[in-house]
Amino acid sequence: MLLSENKFGGFEMGIDARGNIYQADHFTNTIKIIEKNGRSVTIAGSGKAADVDGIGLASSFNGPQGLAIDKHGNLFVSTFNYDTKQGNKIRKIVVE
After folding, report:
1. Pairing of strands 64-69, 75-81
2. Domain total for the chain?
3. Is residue 29 part of a domain?
4. Could you tell me which residues come within 8 angstroms of residue 51 by beta carbon, excluding any fewer than 6 positions away?
5. Nearest to 13 by CA among 68, 61, 56
6. Which of 6, 36, 51, 95 gives 20 to 30 Å between its CA and that of 21?
């Protein structure tokens, strides 16, 4: 996989036990999975800068940037929007 093409924005990336790469994309307010073929797919976040719980694209993130994965495959994402000075939350995403 070639990540140096600079086609991925955002701040944090993490790899789970199965080799899936996840990205907290601060610029598009989404959480993405990067597949082994290099394709990026949004799995959470509507793109709106807001902290709204929901399933998949029905959720919203206000400046996602930190990302951690626990031993069960759950994602934890921290948010902070530098423009609005809002967010500042830790959100949990259950990947099924």
Report:
1. antiparallel
2. 1
3. yes
4. 60, 61, 62, 79, 86, 87, 89, 91
5. 68
6. 51
Global pTM value: 0.83
Distance in angstroms (rounded) separating the CA atoms of residues 27 and 48: 10
- Average pLDDT across each block of 10 residues of the chain; the chain has 96 residues. List them in order: 46 84 92 86 94 94 91 91 85 89
In a domain, 1, yes or no: no
Cβ proximity of 47 and 39 under 8 Å: no
Q: Shortest CA distance to 1 belongs to which of 43, 28, 40, 32?
A: 40
Q: What's the pLDDT score for residue 17?
A: 84
Residue 7 lies in a domain: no
> Residue 5 falls within a domain, yes or no?
no
Q: Find the domain containing 43 and state its range.
A: 12-93
